[in-house]
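Replying to the earlier thread about multi-chain prediction with a worked example.

Input:
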Amino acid sequence: MRRKMISLILMSVLILGLIGGVSAQDLTGDDILDRVEAAIDADSSEIKLKMQLYNEAGSMRERELKAYTQDGEYDKALIRFLAPASVEGTAFLSHEKNNNDEDMYLYMPVLGNVRRIAGSQKNGSFVGTDFSYNDLSILGGGNYKEDYKATILESNKNEYLLKLIPTDKEIEYKFVKMWVKRSNWFPTKLEFYDTSGDLHKVLINEGVKQIAGYWTASELTMKNVQKGSKTVLRLDEITYDKPISERIFTTRYLRRY
Amino acid sequence: MRRFKVLTLLLVLLLILSSVSYAKDIEISGSLNSYLVGNPNNGLIEEEEKVNLILEKEFGFDANMHLDLEFKSDANSSTTTSFNEAYLNYYTQNMDWRLGKQEISWGSAYKINPTSYFNPNDLTALKPLDEKLGVKAIKGIYYAPKGLEITGVVVPFFRGISLKNNAKDNVGDNVKNIQSGFKVTKRRFHDYDISLSAYHGRDKLPAVDSKANFIYPKANRVGLDIIGDLGDMGVWAETTYSDYQDEQFKNVIETAVGIDYKFDNNLYLVGQGYYKEGRTESEPRVKAANFYVSKPIFDFHEIEVTTLYDFESETSLIEPQFNYSLANSVELQLGGTYVDSAEKDTSSGLISALGQDRIYTRLNVEF
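Result:
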């Protein structure tokens, strides 16, 4: 599980794909997950986005990111902070093979060197936001079949409500509820329940539109209802399936800022 | 008045540079740091202001320039202006060059790096392990296939850790004092990055010779640096062997071995052991354990604690710090350092170099 460290945040805005002509009546929960997952098939992406982090007191901090992803023998991702000044230039590089063999590197301009970082850096929140790395995985499509078992709780003419139960013990939730639109297999809302079964976080996807043939949410809001904080991701620019030089995904490029 | 002049000068400089940058695409960034340090033993409070202006300019896709201009005013009413770094990057097909005053960061250990051969730590800084002094150097990194990197460095002019009372270091600027080193790094070798390095030059840390003079001993060094994963835990080991040309100094080993781990609640832990033999009979050996803990609180703020214990001198240091985020890129740090030693004289050794009893605040603004 936990594949695609950073690419996941990018993939989170990639949830897409209308697969037409399918008879919805006979679908199981896992079939629907297949539809969502199969739709996330861009070979590469280049994304610029803004993050707004709100704490329970309503104070806000902003971050700006640029990210690249590339699928292949290794799934590769590079994400770099553009703002604010205190983190500008800081960058992560991830190379992942076989879903659990992952190499991650961190570059911090103030230290001036590229340092390998361990898997535990993915524990906790993603760069101080209300997203955990596992949240990003579920948003990005991850490996649903490996990580979750899905059942249909409800359905109507517009959408399905699924219950996802983690099969990977490292996922920190008891279950997740996911609302998926029938028209484009796009998840519009997710609720994350903690190990006690209490609602922990809620994710809303808004501003869904087609970009280069892919359905994309231009704004994602994750609320931590237990803590009172929230994180808003706003997509500024996105390019899909444009060839990205392999040199971008190197420790050499990490330094080059 | 002094500070007013410094700030006026900076303002004028910023205005000039802003207009220049608009015209010539020079990017300006930087930081302002204001310190207050109180000594609970004698009641004295010291202040320091530091402004760093960073100017960057791209020359197409193949080259860029980086200048870090530092203005510093301290408690002695002295104001200094210097380039902490000033270098040109030049990129070719498989090789990156950096020419000029720069920091060369080698080593994977936590803040104490035996293979960091070239830049001395700035012992006048509030946190000496966090700040290094730039050296004039030529550095080239060759990127070979399969994650192999070969780095070569030449430093024409020696710069060591400052001697007490500004004593002259007696290291002349001539060819025989040129320092050089190289490093070969293999990345992703069975989940580990491995570096082998070699160095010819002088120790940055002065030693007392048989005639009671402070000197920077000449040495040849070889080093090994390994970092990787053990499960989800980060592990590293960094070690050097120093061979001294002057027989009055013993050849020594310096080693740092550590682990780090981040928990689901964002608690981050570092544990590290450090060992260094004394170069002379009178120089103490260091056998230290270093721990670091940090945890975000209320989302934007952070509390961190650094501890260090030297088993040889039975000296310990504890340094808690609270980082309060006032706004984007504006942070107020509140902290204190407490040193406890079995020996009355703590003026020598690793821990004394890192700080004495004190409480401090630091306002950091980055732009």
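Residues 10-23 of chain A have pLDDT under 50 and may be disordered.

Feel free to reuse this layout for your own posts.
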